[in-house]
Inverse folding.
């Protein structure tokens, strides 16, 4: 799987879709690197260890339309609501998938 250091190699690519499910080796620092992927439209970070700090750095990606944060145990419902409010306030529509389970969102 990917690690934080591996994500640095993606910066120069014109990625529109990125799938990193179950990458528990990618931390919030790795998600900061993803914030440079300005063309990214779809992101699957389900079952990851991302926290609010990680999604905060991705909130400004203007092209990002689909986020999958299912089963992200370090995110709370309040974090997802914050993300929705930020995106809406800036006129950036998106679809977020977030499933609450014992293992997922708190």
């Amino acid at each position: 799987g990917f690690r934080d250091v591996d994500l640095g190699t993606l910066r120069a690519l014109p990625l529109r879709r990125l799938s990193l499910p179950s990458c528990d080796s990618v931390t919030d620092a790795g998600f900061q690197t993803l914030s440079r992927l300005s063309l990214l439209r779809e992101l699957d970070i389900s079952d990851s260890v991302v926290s609010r700090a990680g999604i905060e750095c991705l909130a400004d990606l203007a092209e990002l339309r689909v986020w999958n944060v299912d089963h992200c145990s370090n995110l709370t419902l309040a974090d997802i609501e914050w993300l929705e409010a930020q995106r809406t306030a800036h006129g950036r529509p998106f679809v977020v998938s977030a499933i609450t389970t014992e293992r997922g969102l708190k």
The chain has four helices and four strands.
